[in-house]
């Protein structure tokens, strides 16, 4: 029996690190009944695509369905991924991973085997397939779908084997497992130390550069957490007010949840500062000096301070997780929702409603930041989820720099990766901690902005989809760790941990570091040059907002005394507070906070309309240039079809291909014309300038 | 004029729907044709013009401390909320408008007073832009199996049909007459679309008067003739676009549907599109959702679903797809009918034609399609769109649904259509505006009696003249999508159909995206064209300059020399056309987008001759002055604004004149 001894043949040995193998050949499955690839060409094709340490477990020829036209090729299951290689397609030498054809094992959300008689979902590795599949469907957690049909004619055993292998491999893969060795082969190619495309904010220079770029003169880079002893979830470096000593920082941070005290997120060119911090650690008993330190850090030299209760009016983590699961179920091609009930089912997921509330809140906060010079503090208990989401959205709304490709990637690196958003826990299948795709919710919010302001963003929808999918590809550490400390540990950056760090120290002494410098921003790992070109939004028009607008200036960092006005922003309104910190007189103010107050008026009016001195209607008076105020009424929030409905190619017809090809065609046409003209026009220009002008001046 | 009780009310406030606290203070004017609101704000003095014929309902609401509320709903989905300080004024405005918006005679409609300052010849040329006989020739008619019939000369057989009709050659006058007597309102089967490749055709008619058992030999022969006219197939589809229940109910009234036993070789099919009353209510429900002050996600999605609107759109698309498939893939002819064969039949036939024939996806082809399937075949524009005061139960958004179907298709096939969304929106607007004569009356016969063509202007000529504004920048004539039949997925997926915010929320600026990619692309295209023209001009100049150089070297001092160059004395303007200038243009570009008020009011006023983007003008310009022309054609808002303003002034003069 060819499937006899199945347990043995697919019992995959724990992954052996064999980096010296390099991009070498596959180890064909040990002792299995797997036939050697008959076609030598196919064999070499399989070989060429392998990652270091990757083993091919099973393969079968098949046809990729659901696309127009159907694509014949080979379905391959390895210990790292499932991949479909179309015939004649060669893995690009530089891109060892493919965004089109690869499914990382951790990305597989659902595996279905279909025959004319039955349809089974393979959940556990133990579940035995009782028939020979004619087709298998792999539903990605990233909403992609791989549908491969197998042809009859002697190849059925292979179809069976590959299905079982996928089921097994998936069960054995772990979330933390990474495509190791990929960095090695990668860094081997580009000789020497490669500069990361985006500053990873692992060195103090990166922070210093960014601080200068923002023009945050009143701030400095604090080295107090260089050894992660203030908080492991914080980055090694962060920004604190100039006048605050490191000892004060240490003193103050101890009174915040998990040591995440107030730090600068973004300095508005007009003078306002956007800060983020964790919740007050109410159990602590700070002395007067501690309180003074905390207050001066929150105040950041401004006389006007607004504390923003971040979680107010936003969904909980559990809400988001549930909404995302429902959304995924709804977008499955065979979702049982009847045709007429689609809209209410979509509403039932609540996903769009959560997107809407995030946008509304971000819009309010960005008005707070831009309308007056003040310190705006985002306060969330953990400071690792919604603070990052809101702070990034506010920056996208208020800072044109953040809307460039570079700016956006830096933003994500700073507010999410470096700030310690627990990617692994939130996205993970580890089962530990609270799962919630907060980052994906953020990407959806960004997509909504892109829809509403198509000329304001340098990156395209394609880029957002790429970032969305990267979350499920374990090729770099960016999304595979919960905080910078773990990330650094893994990349052996801190293996000389006991050494005294010196500012400016950046490279680990041994060149042995794996993936130290590779991040999700190394797009050429997974995307071809042509695809990366599509990251650019052809409609981007940076000239749109040149004139810099600044709010009423006030001498900043001049008033050392206590803040003259302290506000709590909650339920879409400002409430005056007596004091910043809750400890002076119990009961604590924030604990009572306004969580139970109703939103004052149920109206769509954002703060912009009410009292902030902004124009009473659009267009007539100039809005602060570069400030985008998003729409968040029901009809304005749309479903991100190109991302969520990818499993249903029929829906994609008008969405991706034609439009993008249309634009691409248009672009290439224009570029060709440009090329044609450049050599022709330049001599003409000369002749124009030299010849007719003098003649003209004579004639005049 | 006698109906206007008060021509002018001051200190009126116009509310902004999204944020009711914002209100613009201004003056309200009533003229014979328009309601005009002029804002007091001195820097803008923004004007809002509403044609009386666009107004669907006027609602006087409870008086509050601030004044009397007046709510004006328009057929193009605009919603005006006015606060008039004096109750008496409000009442006068209300009573005047009630009368003004319900004309009883055709002569009261705007198209009989509208004068775009074209001479008689131009007007006549405008009406000749489209020629239906030309369209039938394009289809390959008359041909081997089809001929032009004069049976309906002077509307003798059917007064809602046109005189020119194509019928199978084998159908004699006797058969046609017999068949017409067996059909509701004598609308016998006639050709709507003919496919040259497959010889299959789409025919249309009304329901047969079959009752429970009646038969008609001639009608059976008629269907036989249609089948025989298509040698490639041995059967005909008969598509009844009504829900089966409705068709059965009609049998009790002596009408009904074809019995498959009586007709040889037909395949009968029901496709359930609901009747005009259901559609009217559905739209009403959807518009209520659109009117919500601050709709939440669930308000919007639930409301949209409960209105059923998208479901109805899907039903029409499904019917169109079915017919297109039958014709293209099975090569079978189809006879389509509903009850009277002028609402659902028109929708379905035109959707099917659009799917089948790329010609209808071009600007001119689309106009022809509406001319053929809607105007000539007697769609009751007057009743459906309430141009004259009439039975409110007759009003229904039939052609609106068709226009939306086209938009849904455009969303799915962005490269397949030569025209853009704006084109559809403007057509919808003018179906209700009564500014042009095209959509007047209920049939060709009535239009001829009214001498529409001699007394009014044609919308098609107007649209064609401004076609530059209606081009889809993504259209590619050589794209694989563009050729042949458009194939919609067969799998059921309701979410393919989307809410058309650009139509139903078109006056809610806050709800629209702030920038339009289409406009951006159009600007790029225009710019490209300008650069090309400029290049050509420059090349020509270069040639001349080289010649001059030769001359110069030969004869150094020639007095006539400078005058030679005065012809192309524009190096400055050409130098200004550098990339900086380009980006400057782009920046100001959004001011032309149709979602903006100015452009819209300009559209309503339509002073063609003042439009600076008129392509005809530039075509006349000779090469030498080409460069100068370019600068005034550039899409910068600054240069356009004055022309639009003057357009307004002139029209307001006219309005005043009319009032006097």
UniProtKB/TrEMBL annotation, chain A:
**Top-rank taxon, per record:** Eukaryota
**A family per Pfam:** Myotub-related
Instruction: List where Basic and acidic residues composition bias occurs.
Output: 682-692
Q: Where is this region: Disordered?
A: 1-38, 180-212, 681-700
- Bias (Low complexity) ranges: 21-35
**Residues in Myotubularin phosphatase domain copies:** 201-644
Q: Which family does it belong to?
A: Belongs to the protein-tyrosine phosphatase family. Non-receptor class myotubularin subfamily.
Q: What is this protein called?
A: Myotubularin phosphatase domain-containing protein
Annotated organism of origin: Pipistrellus nathusii
Lineage, please?
Answer: Eukaryota, Metazoa, Chordata, Craniata, Vertebrata
From TrEMBL, chain B:
Membrane disposition: Peripheral membrane protein
Coiled coil segments of this chain: 521-548
> Is the keyword Lipid metabolism assigned to this protein?
yes
* SMART domains from the UniProt entry: PTPc_motif
Task: Give every Myotubularin phosphatase domain span.
Answer: 126-504
User: Region Disordered: what ranges?
Assistant: 555-660
**Compositionally skewed regions (Polar residues) per UniProt:** 567-612
Could you tell me what this protein is called?
A: Phosphatidylinositol-3-phosphatase
Q: Where is the composition biased (Basic and acidic residues)?
A: 641-653
The family annotation for this protein states: Belongs to the protein-tyrosine phosphatase family. Non-receptor class myotubularin subfamily.
Q: Does the keyword Secreted apply?
A: no
Q: Where is the Tyrosine specific protein phosphatases domain?
A: 307-351
Q: What is its main location?
A: cytoplasm
| A Pfam family reported for this protein in Swiss-Prot or TrEMBL | Myotub-related
Q: Gene3D superfamilies attached here? A: Pleckstrin-homology domain (PH domain)/Phosphotyrosine-binding domain (PTB) (2.30.29.30)
Keywords on record = Coiled coil, Cytoplasm, Lipid metabolism
The organism encoding this protein is Pipistrellus nathusii (Nathusius' pipistrelle)
Q: Where in the cell is it found?
A: Cytoplasm; Endomembrane system
